[in-house]
Design brief:
heterodimer; A: about 270 residues; alpha+beta; Immunoglobulin-like; 2 domains; five-stranded mixed β-sheet; about 40% helix; B: about 550 residues; mainly alpha; Cytochrome C Oxidase, Chain A; globular; binds copper (II) ion
Amino acid sequence: MQIPSAIVTLVLGMLLVLGGLWIGQNINLLPVDASTNAPIYDELFRVLFSIGTILFLGIVGLIIFSLVRFRRRPGQLGDGLALEGNLPLEVFWTAVPAIVVLFVGLFSYDIYERMGGMAPLSHGDHGGAMPAEQRIWGGIGSSEISTTSSTSLLQPLPVEVTAMQFAFLFHYPDGDIMSGELHVQAGRPVSLRMEAKDVIHAFWVPEFRLKQEVIPGQPTVLDFTPTRPGRYPIVCAELCGPYHGGMRSTVVVDSADDFNAWIQANRKPPVQEA
Amino acid sequence: MTLTVPQQSPPAPQSLQPTGWLRYLSFSVDHKVIGLQYLVCGFAFYLIGGALAGAIRTELVSPISDFMPRDVYNQVLTLHGTVMIFLWIVPVVNGAFGNYLIPFYVGARDMAFPRLNAVAFWLIPPAGLLLISSYFITGAAQSGWTAYPPLSLTTPASGQIIWILSVLLLGGSSIFGGINFIATILKLRRPGLKLMQLPMYCWAMLGTSILVVLSTPVLAGTLIMLSFDIVAHTGFFNPGLGGNVVVYQHLFWFYSHPAVYIMVLPAFGLVSEILPIHCRKPLFGYTTMVYSIMAIVVLGLVVWAHHMFTSGTPPWMRLFFTIATAFIAVPTGIKFFNWLATLWGGKISLNSAVLFSCGFIVNFVLGGITGVALAQVPFDVHVHDTYFVVAHFHYIVYGGSVFVIFASIYHWYPKVTGRLMNEHLGRFHFLLTFVGFNLCFAPQHWLGLNGMPRRVAEYDPQFQLINQFSSVGALLMAISTLPFLWNVIASALQGEIAGDNPWNALTPEWLTSSPPPVENWKGEAPLVTNPYAYGTPENEIDLNSVSGSDLWRNGQ
Ligand SMILES: [Cu+2]
Ligand SMILES: [Cu+2]
């Protein structure tokens, strides 16, 4: 009686873990990835999804099993077992989640660092010397993503983003281009410096897995490197007024040639080519 | 000092109190009347908040804004959030069940401050009516229940000011309630009753009330500053006048994260009361349950900035709040494993109260898992302010707290009315609610991951089908209210007579008549030192009723 139940438990546990891992690795809930940090994000997502699936299915399984196995049958009287607690068991289910949470925390810290989140922001020191208006806040900072060596050879493309009710405006300092769409070059880092004119907005590109609030009075920065040519939505993610749902734009990730052609076609004063 | 307590309750006000159903409309100081006032009033606002949710889900059936004007949509979502949080869940899990049960649990005849108690309740209906009427008079607030400046400074001022007034009144009510619970639990305990002998709901309410008293004043101060910015054109949060909008977010979330625990900790307590009775087993791990509540209270105060990972927060702050937030999963996990252990080996009656409690466990575990994921900065940066978050917090506050409210109503209904609710209708109610809830909110995880932000009236057409699933789920949830309402009303008139203690429970509220008399007990309050003394001792197990593996587990 004892050995079979132990084996059954063990087999069920292994099936649960394998099933959870399989689900986490094979069921894709995310849109295409189009920036260097999107695959890193997806790696974190798959780990969290696997752990979450194992935990959730395990607990739901336990509940259903308990409700079926320990249900009161008709005509049955009397109480259950007078178990008031079990210290080793309590220690076990305190320690295991603590270890899992610690592992997840360290892993996501590592992910965050690879995304460039822990890099010091340009002028972003939180010393009290500078007045608030000049501080650069938040965002995924100036990242040194070295996954592809070719990207680091290219100069980051600076773009000034202005968010207002209910549109994004993109200004390219090189060439003094104003645009309602964000044009970037695949493989070349982009550095957005964002400011809002009226209320808080948020710049979100789901395919880049990146979001940063655009805050009036406090410039924020967002650095990323697009990878996959295509057109992706830019979505305002912070409630900003009646037309919040319509506050959308497009980021166009071009090949190098297309991007240069676009720059040439739109730049205002004729400047010689670099 | 403690011995004089029973004599302290003055008999004089009682004689002035109306009797019969009229007392429910009066300034009654009876904790049971006040508890029911909270419950019925809260439920009325739940229906209003639900109708608002229905309007939101109707708008989202199609990807274009076609059901109501865009500014009305923002008013509706602001009212929905505010009503559901401040007028339904917080007053019901704290005020309703707290007032009804806590005096019983500590062996007192009423709350410590009965008049303050009545004042706390009677702040709620005017505040709620003020809030709702703002929609008809001036137009309601449009900046969401978070009221972030500068949006809240630039949307029409009258609606925003009424919103602030109403939330201040509700916050005041909540603080009065919190003070009362702390005083009652710590000072009105029957002589001989030790803290570690109290039913778990007392601990949950003690922890919750500490959070209420520490954090709600911060919200009040913040909203007063916000109202100065609107009315007197001060510049606390107005960037045009040198103010700082991120400071508002810090202050707001310093209250509003603990507010989550103000909504779920009492629910944890209620489940801890319901499960042992219907499983006929002691609550597993009483001591660790108490410590985990206190750990949640302490950690809950230092995690607020996880709502601000995409706004202006420096990297070190993001790291700290990630770790603090993720660690709340540990004490929370302890509670869930203890409930599972309470179920294990029991003789579980599969009635509506147990089904809703188990539905709560399933939903909350999912909400907790997505919560730990959201605590990770890189994860949050993608899904912050999207439908993923909407799904997450509805799993916590609806799948969690509201499921527990229904479980509690099925469980304590015979105490209040002396009659049982109809079990068939109750299980049907559970089935509809559980299916409708999961159909409504589970798909929203996918919506958020794939690019649908929250609080929008119009969205990318590729999301239409999934949104329609979600709206069908919302419709099922709305329909599920009907069998419940019918059950509550019909059972009150012709339900099966329950007797004083239909569940054979040991907690003190069941050791008196149903419904209980004024001042709770005819004679002296019973001294219940082990409210969970269910179960057959291991050596007395009837060999015919257990399986071999039960014996084997016992032998350890
Ligand atoms: Cu916007
Ligand atoms: Cu929070």
